[in-house]
DNA sequence: AAAAAAT
């Protein structure tokens, strides 16, 4: 980590150059940020001019501030300090795909609007609707929401969207993935036709362009060099590991590398819960976050992680996009995501704000194909490594109380595992010279042999 | 393939 920042040959603008309203500029100054990121430098003047914008940018590129700051600036034209809700109609509506993201955008809006009379409210599902209803009835200029709960409020007539002059669709590609299109259509029909529209997405797919055509008017396109999300400050590596070794590998990495805050991505909600539970039993401070947990538990886990009370946050892809936790030094893909784009989003949780980060992937030999898909997308090779695990931690976990252990035939570890590590086959009941299985041969070597997966690829 | 989101 160096103190010097590599500057491109563009002149280093500062936030004072944008002509932001003084109250907003003051809040920016208090955050300590002075130099806008590329997406901010490009998008902010356009938004301040009232243009519609399609932006391609990962979160962590400063995207949230890139739309929040100019929106607040524009709203200051209407600002008043009256207590009447009628005097605080919703002027800007920001939609996000997940609840956590809505909460996070809300935090940002609160931060940047604190020296202004502008009010903001955030609404999303999974929590008591009452306080949200009260807040909406008190009035707010900026509303951040997930689509479902917003429509709920609309039906209950808690909010009127008839004066929304600015609409933001954040992580629009994700919203489409999640089937929000019908909800979005319903919401947009409630808005005035004359409005400013901003749409942010990781990529400009055909579907996104179509969405842009139907919701935006003559949008300017802002594409921040996709940074491949594999920013130079994120080191990537992939370790071939058998499923039975992955948990020990997490423990080993956390303990030996001294990572204080690691996000571990698993592909399933059940696997996520179980892994967190087992890690705790292994002496790792861990919690899980996924969509089957109550919103309260999700928020608790995230808050504990942000507060540094957890070493590991085990997560499904609910946390893959947009979540901004400062200073996460390492992301582990416990399972490889089956979509290469998800990989990019997941590892984007580390190496943020110019800090360095590590992205570690575990993979089984038959998953080599996914790794290659990812490499194709990010246009670079992910080095394969070999992780030497301390022999002792390879023992299977003792059963967690009240939980049935998966059935494992007592005397026969699966042959595939042993093949993979190029070891002689040793039934586990005869095992164990105490001076245990030093794996002399890098696992990656044997991984190379699985040519079958190469042939099997391609759709 | 699985995840997320109103109840």
UniProtKB/TrEMBL annotation:
Enzyme Commission code(s) on record: 3.6.4.13
All residue ranges annotated as the Helicase C-terminal domain in the record: 246-393
Pfam families given in the database record: DEAD (PF00270), Helicase_C (PF00271)
Xref: SMART domains: DEXDc, HELICc
Protein name: DEAD-box ATP-dependent RNA helicase RhpA
UniProt record similarity statement: Belongs to the DEAD box helicase family.
GO BP: response to temperature stimulus; ribosome assembly
One GO CC term on file: cytosol
Top-level lineage group: Bacteria
MF annotations from Gene Ontology: ATP binding; hydrolase activity; nucleic acid binding; RNA helicase activity
Basic and acidic residues biased stretches: 438-448
